[in-house]
Write a structure and sequence with these properties.
Strand order of the largest sheet: 3-4-6-5-9
Oligomer: single chain
Distance between the termini: 114 Å
Structural class: alpha+beta
Strand content: 5-15%
Length: 880
């Protein structure tokens, strides 16, 4: 029991002895800050028997009147739902011939401590919630339901009625839109090793010798000279006079022969060697001494000597992982103890046999041994169950583990054997029954939190919540709990990797704080990490690059991984991500109108990554469209023909790291590519007919193509209408590269301009220029379209409208700054001069016109217009 539990129990016991006076009722309930106390009337401590099985408390008594009085008082009380969920009377039956009251606890985290108060004649039951396990238990258990009482059947004083089974609604997992699913995170999962039952080692050989079990006894020195000589050697041994002892023993051998008392002599010498080394601080047993003890064990006829030496050797073998020798020795000790009727040693030896067989993975032999009648009589029931479950899980028979557990779980008393709980929880986890796995892992932590496997249990709980797609903050808290409380550094590291993946990869919108947790991926202090951890780390690091859209870095990292040596199912995960990385690189180049790089990436990586995963229609669409943009018409036709053969292929749905602009199928993609070819050939009539036969995923793109056809046919009013439908209708933006965006803007604004809609043109153009500010440096064509839109805006404002001169002046200055080499500069200067004169700045206007005449780049037509304006100014000033 944990320290805080001891403190609480001590406090409760002191409180019980403090003379507190309870009411005279048969049942009382007292609520305290940290615990709840139930007090039951009882004349003696044996009158009420309290026992607990799992989440049920059973109160038994032979006094039927007392039980009736307790129940009557209980009915008038409202039990605290934080601790209890219900209670029920049970009548005597074949299995249980004593009437009893069963109280059901609200959750497994509720603990119980009971004692008897002699002076007040009360049986006291104290309940509290274990705070150590609450962090995981409250997550794994449901809120306490209303406390209910199951009434006995009428006509009988005490009856038993089976509790109605509660039909639990299936758990509906709500997908969190802010996070990708588990497959996009640290998605590799592997089985944890089955937990073999532990055994305590017989001796701490770093501090003790076999004398601890078999001390050197005094000899009957008065009996003979030989016995007196041996007593002298024993005395020297006890006084640690090793040199004199050796001389004495050497004289004894010379006088009485080498075989006389050889076992005692060797025993003294071997122990002397060990004790001398221990005094020097050298705790490692000397090989010579071990060899001498081995000889003694084989040769000695004294059972107690063999037993003492055997225990020492067994510890030595276990410490040095010499499991085969330990197994052989344990078998001999088992037989020896049975022959000498030392049953206490027999059961210990039997457990050592099971333990060593388990370590050697001799699973079948373990299963055979636990079923032998002799072993069943010697070892505790839970130990045998633990070894049986360990064997089944080691063989991968998870269903058999769970079936066996369900048969025996009601017979298991707390604390349940650590190996039983862990292996059952692991079996549930392997069977993907994560809810039950969490519940059993919680029980394991509550009863064996000190165990080294508690690290794995905490991580399994966090991972189960992750797989169930539970509330993200709760999942991250559980991962952090596993990181901070893990005794095993490798389990802690796995928790760190999974925490990073959950928070900084699966989360859709991440910030700097989310990226900072990636420092957890560093493992400089860990050496010899397992292959499972390595592949999990590699996958997580790769996906951090993908998440940050660093596709070039991701591809470099991926190509450095040993993919060829991986199993097929593992390699395909990396290859799926690889296809997305290549797609990201291709999309970046496509948006930059680097069409040759798009096709080059396709050619290089289509066999290594792209073709190894399910077919992606849109990826093929991007490649074909790039070929068309490059005017590689023959390659385009071959590519489209190849797509015809892919229609029946399964479409790629995972992984999808880079969003697609469309979810069209191959028929639609091929039809659209044919349409684009007609656009390239300026076959507007054929293109218009083709549109009617294409099944677009939404009508948005249909409006786009129809608008372009109307524009090229000079139907500007219809083009304007279709462009506006395209821009305002809901759906994905289908034009993806910057050139197409620029062409769209040009066609739309030109359509308005050609119709002379000055106010609308100015309003729309200003909005579009603002929205496409980020595109102006991406491509020369985009830059040219924006330049033309700016010019037309100034033309429309400067000529056909009465502009605010201050605003117009700022627009002109901005245009000259953005396009210092523009072909429209002469015209812009002319418009600026006109508006300077209109604003009353004749002098500055004259300077602008004179500048046009001096500019060698100005056209003769523009210079003639400038001369006209200067003449008009001269007339106005009456200088002619």
């Amino acid at each position: 029991m944990r320290k805080h539990a001891f403190k609480l129990l001590t406090f409760l016991c002191l409180l019980g002895a403090s003379g507190e006076i309870l009411s005279k009722g048969y049942f009382d309930q007292i609520q305290n800050d940290d615990f709840l106390r139930l007090s039951l009337h009882a004349q003696t401590s044996e009158q009420l028997i309290i026992s607990r099985k799992g989440s049920e408390i059973e109160i038994k008594t032979l006094d039927l009147e007392l039980l009736d009085n307790i129940v009557n008082d209980l009915k008038s009380e409202k039990l605290n739902a934080k601790y209890f969920s219900g209670y029920q009377l049970l009548e005597p039956n074949a299995k249980n011939n004593v009437p009893s009251l069963k109280i059901t606890l609200a959750s497994p985290s509720v603990e119980l401590f009971s004692f008897y108060k002699e002076r007040e004649k009360k049986k006291v039951l104290d309940f509290w919630i274990d705070s150590d396990s609450l962090g995981t238990k409250t997550a794994a258990t449901k809120p306490a339901a209303k406390v209910t009482f199951t009434k006995p059947i009428k006509g009988k004083k005490l009856t038993k009625k089976a509790a109605a089974k509660k039909i639990e609604k299936p758990i509906v997992v709500k997908k969190n839109k802010d996070y990708r699913d588990f497959r996009y995170g640290a998605s590799f999962i592997w089985d944890y090793e089955a937990l073999s039952p532990r055994v305590s080692k017989p001796l701490n050989i770093e501090r003790k010798t076999p004398e601890y079990f078999y001390p050197v006894a005094n000899r009957e020195f008065n009996k003979s000279e030989k016995e007196a000589h041996l007593q002298l050697a024993v005395n020297l041994f006890r006084k640690k006079k090793w040199g004199l002892m050796y001389k004495s023993l050497r004289l004894f051998v010379q006088k009485y022969g080498e075989d006389t008392e050889i076992d005692l002599i060797e025993y003294l010498k071997a122990n002397a060697i060990l004790r001398e080394n221990l005094e020097k601080g050298e705790t490692e047993p000397v090989k010579m001494a071990i060899s001498m003890f081995q000889n003694i064990f084989k040769r000695s006829e004294v059972y107690d000597m063999r037993k003492g030496v055997g225990k020492y050797l067994l510890t030595y073998y276990l410490n040095n992982n010499e499991t085969v020798q330990a197994l052989d020795l344990a078998k001999k000790m088992y037989v020896d103890s049975k022959e000498n009727f030392d049953y206490e040693e027999s059961d210990k030896a039997a457990e050592y046999i099971l333990y060593t067989l388990a370590k050697l993975n001799q699973v079948d032999k373990v299963r055979q041994l636990v079923k032998e009648k002799t072993i069943i009589k010697l070892l505790p029931k839970q130990v045998l169950i633990a070894y049986e479950m360990f064997s089944l899980l080691k063989l991968g028979k998870t269903e058999d583990v769970l079936s066996y557990y369900n048969e025996v779980k009601n017979s298991l008393t707390k604390p349940v054997h650590e190996a039983i709980l862990f292996n059952v929880a692991e079996a549930y986890f392997r069977e993907a029954n994560y809810e039950k796995a969490v519940a059993v892992y919680d029980s394991f932590l509550a009863q064996h939190s000190y165990h080294i496997k508690s690290s794995e249990a905490r991580l399994r709980i966090a991972l189960a919540y992750d797989l169930l797609d539970r509330e993200p903050k709760k999942v991250e808290e559980l991962y952090k709990n596993a990181i901070n409380r893990s005794q095993n550094p490798f389990v802690s590291y796995e928790a760190r990797i999974r925490y990073v993946a959950h928070r900084s990869i699966r989360k859709n919108a991440i910030n700097d704080a989310d990226r900072e947790v990636r420092v957890f991926l560093d493992n400089d202090n860990l050496k010899n990490i397992s292959y499972d951890l390595k592949k999990l780390l590699w996958l997580t690091r790769l996906r951090t690059f993908i998440k940050d859209a660093q596709y070039t870095e991701a591809l470099s990292f991926l190509t450095a991984l040993p993919l060829k040596t991986m199993k097929e199912e593992v390699r395909r995960v990396y290859e799926g991500d690889g296809a997305e990385i290549v797609y990201g690189i291709m999309m970046d180049n496509f948006e930059k109108t680097e069409y040759s790089k798009v096709y080059r990436a396709w050619e290089i990586y289509k066999d290594s990554y792209i073709s190894r995963v399910a077919t992606d229609p849109y990826l093929n669409y991007i490649v074909a469209k790039s070929l068309l943009k490059l005017n590689f018409n023959d390659l385009f036709e071959k590519f489209v023909s190849r797509l015809e053969g892919l229609k029946e292929n399964k479409f790629k749905s995972f992984p999808v790291w880079v969003s697609r602009a469309t979810d069209s199928d191959f028929d639609t993609v091929i039809s659209e590519l044919r349409l684009l070819k007609q656009f390239q050939m300026q076959d507007w009539d054929g293109a218009w007919r083709s549109i009617a036969s294409i099944k677009f995923s939404n009508t948005k793109k249909k409006h786009y193509y129809q608008a372009l056809i109307h524009y090229h046919r000079k139907n500007f009013d219809k083009a304007e209408e279709e462009f506006e439908k395209y821009l305002t209708e809901a759906g994905k933006m289908e034009t993806v590269d910057s050139v197409e965006v620029a062409k769209l803007l040009k066609a739309y604004t030109d359509s308005i301009y050609e119709q002379g809609k000055a106010d609308k043109f100015v309003k729309v153009t200003r909005a579009l220029l603002s929205d496409t500010e980020s595109l102006k440096e991406k491509n020369k064509y985009v830059q040219g379209v924006r330049e033309r839109m700016n010019y037309l805006l100034l033309e429309m404002v400067g000529v056909e409208m009465k502009p605010d001169f201050v605003t117009f002046s700022k627009d002109v200055t901005a245009f000259k700054k953005d396009y210092p080499q523009s072909q429209y500069l002469g015209r812009i200067n002319y418009l600026f001069g006109i508006n300077l004169v209109k604003a009353g700045n004749s002098k500055e206007g004259r300077e602008v016109f004179e500048g046009i005449l001096k500019d060698t780049k100005s056209s003769e037509y523009l210079k003639e217009m400038a001369r006209t304006e200067l003449s008009l100014l001269a007339i106005k000033d009456r200088k002619i």
